[in-house]
Amino acid sequence: MLAVLHERTRVGRLGAAGRELEFAYDAKWRARTGAFALSPRLPLREQPWHGEEVLFFFANLLPEGNLLDTLCKLRRLPRGNVLRLLEAFGRECAGAFEIVPEDEQGARAPKPDYAAYSNAALRKDLANLRANIPLLQAHGALRLSLAGAQNKIPVRYDGRKLWLPQHGAPSTHILKPALQPEAEYPDAVRNEAFCMRLAGALGMNVPATTVLTDPEPMLLIARYDRVVDGEKIRRLHQLDLCQLTGTLPDQKYESDGGPGFADLFAQVDAHSAAPALDRLALVDWLLCNFLIGNVDAHAKNVAMLYTNAGRLRLAPAYDLLALGHWSRLSTDMAMAIGGERRPEWVQARHWQRLCEAVGLNAAQLRRRALRLAATAESAHKELARDLELPQKLRRSIGATLRQRGDWIERRLAVQETP
Questions:
Q1: What are phi and psi of 272, to 5 degrees?
Q2: Active site residue 296
Q3: For a FRET experiment, which of 4, 192, 236, 391 has its CA 20 to 30 Å from that of 60?
Q4: CATH second-level architecture of 237-411?
């Protein structure tokens, strides 16, 4: 049995009922002023929740893909046992909750604190990465976890030093080393840093990013689901769009039955406290990914964040990469535009179908797309200089932005006959 905690307070218990997960809210939590549900799909109630709705929420807190496979092999954990995996990795997840064994909470629980993350320890971790030993394995005793397929680790950063959270202490940043193997994904750190800062230049809400260079380039990203007030760090509740749509992480791609653009807009319409603003932010996210060639933008790369008033708003954009820089990767988009996944084949009729599917005005979409393309074209050179992008990466991204901007200008301007 696992305890689900928020700010050291028990929210409920997670266990198994036969072969199904079961989650029950704690009575004191339900009676608490300001209590909130894990998800709109799991509203507060006295009766336990069980089955796939519980699985949809908790499975999406875990690492994914090859990273999870490697961790399971190294820890000798069953890949399909979400309860065991959360026991191993659930202490510091995305969002508001800690998931810990029952005997590790309450008065006898160790006091949250931090361990200095020395340069020597960091060097050792980076060497382990190249030996296919994940960061989460190297720091297994800390039971740190972040969803996703990429190696990363939650840390506290005070502006000078890195610290590793212990005993449930909240992190403030996410540390992302270079993608492995580096020979296949050169310059990944500066690639993502550039794309995040370009999105900011386009007017999008993005977390602050810092490129650390000692002992080698790494991307440090401020967590938008944390609020830092002096020495106090507060966790904010978030849900990615797989959790909101009831989708397992291995089905996050639209081609595997996962959400598409229509599903994302529908969730914003259903849950956002400011749907008009969040729809516009989602349009910008769609267009930015198209412009930079981020074909891997899927439902787990979009999240909604609870405000202080307990209402959901679209979270800042994250995981933005110009994937076209690496020619070995597929160029097909994770989410189709009007039924077309090949970006070079997206024509006016596909944009029109997208608009009809998500309730957008085609003329407004065109104006927005042209404005973002022009801003990206004017801003990218200075950003590339500031980040000291290698020439090959700079030329690659610049060519993609110009090509995609040209496609938008020419193809959104023409109304074709089906």
A1: -75, 140
A2: yes
A3: 192
A4: Orthogonal Bundle (1.10)
